C-alpha cells in the first residue's frame, strides 16, 4: 500500500520543479495570527511535518538528496533526528506528549505495516485479519492509535491498546482515512464518496462532515483536545491553490491564505504543522499563535491571595482547584488584569510529584511549575495569564496545601503601567563578601537598589533572584518587600532543609527606592541578583506577551545531561517565540544525579555573569522562574555539575 499522501506530493513536486520553486531557505515570517518557522530537514529535498505534541516536538518524513529515499524524522529542541525502521521506508505520522510515535513502515509497494516507536524500539502492528496493509496515523496521550488499513478500499480504525474497532464514514464508497485522535477519543480525517473527499470528525458514536466549499475537496487532518480541526481545501487539485483552515463546531477560520498552507497537525497549545509556499518556496512549517495583546506591569505590595490551610483545605492529589484572583485576600486586584505575578508555595502532606498552574478554562499544560519529591515546603514564582472570570487553576499530583501570593499584575498599556528593561544578570548583594554580613534572625535588613548594576533611580520595580544560604539548620521563610512599608504577611521563599535556595521575585521600588529583607527563624547569608527593572514606558521599554506554557528544552529527551556551558536556541525551538523577543520568561528545572551547586542563565554571546539562577546542592529536582534577556534568539546556560535541564517558556518581553 503506497503511502497515500506521497501520491499527492509526487504530483506536487513535479509541478514545483517545473516552476523552479523548490529552493532552500530558512526564514521566519509572521502571517495573520501566527508566527511561522520553517521545518526543513538539513540538505533534504522535501520535508513533510505531520504532527506536533504539546512540547513542540514535530515528527514527519523527508526525501534525501543523495539517494532519493524517504526517511522519518523527529524535530525537538532545535535538533533533527532521523527515525528509520530497519524493516523498510519509515513514515512517522503521530506523536504524543510522552514522545511515543506511530506511523507506517513500507516494506514494498504492496506491504505496509503500522508501527509504534518508543525509547528507541520499533514495534509493528496490523489490523486483525490483515497482513501488510496497515498504517498508523495518530496517537493520543492514552496511547490510543488511529490509522488505516486496506482490505480493498481504504478503511479506518482505532486501536485501543490492542483492541481494534473499525471506522467507516456512512456512505463512503472509496475510503475513510482518519489521521489524528485527541485525548477524548475524537478522530479527525477525511472520506471519499463517489465525487470528492470531505473531512469528518468521529466522536465514538456520531460522524460530522466537514465541507469547506461545495464541489471542492476538503481534507481534515489534525484535532486537539478543544476539538479544533486543521486541514485544507484543494480548490483545483494542485497544492499551490490550497486554502488551509481551522474548523471548530461548524465554523471555519482561514490560515494565512496567501501562502497556500497544507496543515496536518495541531497540538493543545494551538501550534500547527504542515507544508506551505511562502514567496513561492516549498517548506515544512511550525506555526505558533501570536500571543495576546501587550501587557505592562502594575506594582502591588506583596499580598496573600489564598492559603488553603486557612480556606478550603488542601487540594487532593490528582485534582485541580480554581482561584478567582480579583477580589481574593483583600489584595485589590482588578478584573482588567491580564496576567498575574505570583509566588506559589506548596505545603505537602507527603511527597509531591509536581504542581501545575494555568489560566482557568484552558487545557491543563503538560509542564510543571515545581516538584517536592521529599515533601518539603517549597516556593516558585510564576507569571500566569488570567483565565475565565480572572481565575487560575492549580493541579497537584499528590495532596498538598497551596499558598498564592501576588507581587504585581499585568494589564494593557495605560496610565500607571510600566514596561520592562532587561539587564544581563548582575549581583547587587552578597553578604558573604560584606554588604552588612549575615542577616540576623527576626531583624529587617534594607538595601538601596538604584546605582547598582545599572538600575536607574526612576525604576518602579525590580526583577530579582533572591538566594539564601542559612548559617546552620533551616530557615522557615524569607520575606522581601519595599522598604518603608509595613512588612506584609507573605513569604518569598522557604528553606526548612537548610540547603541553598533561590526564588525569583518582582519587588516594587516603593517610595524610598530600597528593598527590605527579613529572615524569620535563622540567620542567613543573602544573595540578590537583578535581571531587569520596570519603569515608565520609554525607548527600549518592553511589554509582556504571555504564551501557553511550552517546553523549549528537555535534555532528557534530546542531548542528554551536561556540565559546563550549553547554548539553547530558543527562537529555533518548537515553541518558536518571535524574533523581536528581547527577554524570555522561563521556568528552569534541573534534574541532577547528585550535588549540583548552581545553574546560571544569561544572554547568548555575552560573558557569563557572576550570578546564579538556581541551586540544587542537595541533588533534588529544583525549579525557579527566570526572566532571561536575549540578543539573538538564544541564551546560554552554565551548570556547575552534571545535570539534566528543562526549560519551559510561559511568555516573552518585546517592544
Describe the fold and architecture:
By secondary structure, the protein is mostly beta strands. Among the domains are: 4-289, TolB, C-terminal domain (Neuraminidase, 6 Propeller), CATH 2.120.10; 542-655, Jelly Rolls (Sandwich), CATH 2.60.120. The chain is 2% helix and 54% strand. The chain has 1 helix and 48 strands. Strands 42, 43, 44, 45, 46, 47 and 48 form a 7-stranded antiparallel beta sheet that branches. Strands 1-2-25-24-23 form a 5-stranded antiparallel beta sheet, with no helix packed on it. It has a 4-stranded antiparallel beta sheet with strand order 3-4-5-6, with no helix packed on it. Strand 3 (44-52) and strand 4 (58-64) form a beta hairpin. It starts with a helix and ends with a strand.
